[in-house]
Structure to design on (439 residues):
RNA sequence: GACCCGUUCGUCUAUCGGUUAGGACUCCAGAUUUUCAUUCUGGCAAGAAGGGUUCGACUCCCUUACGGGUCGCCA
């Protein structure tokens, strides 16, 4: 019998990283075992549902690459996949409970009568958890149908998992105490419960609960901040799950191959944006140039920079230098524009160096004489200029970098020389000369 | 408050009774790159506390502390 998992968000806010990770784990388990991953929209709270939230769910899952085998748009044998469209089904299941005498009316709503006994959840992550339902004060009979006739989460969630033949329910630990309620319902229906796995929550760096407004909480913010989906997936997978090895940079296929519920931790994990960024850089560096170029292009365009014909060569020059894609425009700015704004601190740092007079004098002529222009030829001219003055070529590197880019950090000097071209190099050397002498 | 779950470097984690408690992020130092980033090497840094059990506990049990979760006609 094949594994069936589901992600069942309610469209009431933005897609949260916690929800995204829940979806990821469900997706990974299904893919690992060749099962099915179902997307079900739990939109029973009409007052709080919004179309934007629904778009955020679809968009977020798609961006992360978590495709669903059954659910909205793709449909499937157990639809519809919006709870708001499953009324008839719920009515039928509710009637069963009425026939069994397990519900009673209370102030216009209907409550499910719990059996008063201890209930044990056999959780794949938490182990055996027993909650005593004999203590009625702590576990009052729950409302499953509101006085307006609509059904409550616990009821529809259980009915749908049964109807959709879900075999594994992976969800946040905040649902652990709900599970006995669900078990009671399933028992009343005379059905077998799915396997449960409650995963720990994601916390803020300070240990507080991560909510919608916290940094890094909304998955929708990641794309425009320049995160790569594969990096976010990788980072999220490692929050609360361990591959039990020292490696940690995994592509999605590798995660699928390695994933197992056994590796899931029981303690909540704090979200570390720094490590997430580091991981993004690791993935960015591993992309092939064409893919990186395609991913970086929109950021450069959005920044209003001219995108040259040979953009790929420019993107390649900064591929290992950025953590997030939104750093690309700033990294490329001096290469794409005619004029540069030199960082005063960078200029100050090199001003007093012995090599500066060479840059302002002989090197300008040496560069001007290079024909045809190439990074190699330019470097040879630079070496010759240095040698003539009794300096090592290395002494010219940093000042030249500052002269050409206005910064102390950036692409490889050879790339700068090559991409800038002769005219711009000579011009910037002249500008640099006036900058260091006049101020 | 009651009931659950949890607690290893600042953070993410490995360890399933015997390890100099390992790796990663961050930070620091050095090497390589004639330059920056990358990469490499080294360093700082941990078993919440107290009791047991055991020849031996981070690992098993109990208590306390702390953290998180749940106690809705929200999901």
């Amino acid at each position: 019998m094949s594994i069936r998992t589901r992600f069942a968000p309610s469209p009431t806010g933005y897609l949260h990283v916690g929800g995204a990770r829940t979806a990821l784990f469900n997706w990974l388990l299904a893919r690992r075992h060749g099962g099915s991953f179902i997307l079900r929209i739990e939109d029973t709270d009409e007052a709080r549902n919004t179309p934007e939230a629904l778009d955020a769910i679809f968009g977020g899952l798609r961006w992360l690459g978590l495709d669903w085998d059954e659910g909205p748009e793709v449909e499937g044998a157990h639809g519809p996949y919006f709870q708001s469209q499953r009324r008839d089904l719920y009515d039928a299941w509710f009637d069963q409970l009425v026939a069994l005498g397990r519900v009673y009316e209370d102030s216009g709503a209907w409550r499910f009568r719990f059996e008063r006994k201890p209930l044990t959840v056999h959780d794949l992550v938490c182990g055996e958890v027993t909650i005593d339902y004999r203590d009625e004060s702590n576990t009052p009979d729950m409302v499953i149908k509101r006085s307006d006739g609509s059904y409550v989460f616990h009821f529809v969630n259980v009915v749908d998992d049964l109807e959709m033949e879900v075999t594994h329910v992976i969800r946040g630990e905040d649902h652990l105490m709900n599970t006995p309620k669900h078990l009671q319902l399933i028992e009343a229906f005379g059905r077998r419960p799915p396997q449960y796995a409650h995963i720990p929550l994601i916390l803020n760096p300070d240990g507080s609960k991560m909510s919608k407004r916290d940094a890094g909480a909304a998955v929708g913010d990641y794309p425009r901040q320049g995160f790569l989906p594969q990096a976010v997936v990788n980072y999220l997978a490692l929050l609360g799950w361990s591959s039990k090895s020292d490696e940690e940079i995994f592509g999605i296929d590798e995660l699928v191959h390695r994933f197992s519920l056994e590796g899931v931790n029981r303690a909540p994990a704090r979200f570390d944006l720094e490590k997430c960024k580091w991981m993004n850089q690791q993935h960015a560096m591993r992309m092939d140039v064409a893919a990186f170029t395609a991913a970086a292009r929109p950021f450069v365009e959005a920044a209003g920079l001219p995108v040259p014909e040979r953009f790929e060569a420019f993107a390649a020059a900064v591929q290992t230098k950025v953590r997030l894609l939104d750093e690309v425009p700033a990294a490329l700015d001096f290469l794409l524009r005619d004029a540069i704004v030199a960082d005063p601190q960078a200029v100050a740092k090199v001003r007093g160096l012995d090599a500066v007079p060479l840059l302002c004098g002989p090197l300008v002529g040496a560069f001007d004489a290079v024909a045809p222009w190439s990074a190699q030829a330019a470097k040879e001219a630079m070496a010759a200029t240095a040698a003539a003055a009794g300096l090592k070529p290395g002494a010219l590197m940093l000042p030249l970098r500052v002269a050409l880019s206005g910064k102390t950090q950036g692409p490889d000097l050879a790339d700068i020389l090559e991409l800038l071209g002769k005219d711009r190099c000579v011009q910037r050397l002249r500008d640099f000369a006036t900058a260091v002498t006049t101020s």
About this structure: Chain A has a mean pLDDT of 90. The CA atoms of residues 170 and 197 of chain A lie 5 Å apart. Chain A is about 45% helix and 10% strand. The radius of gyration of chain A is 30 Å.
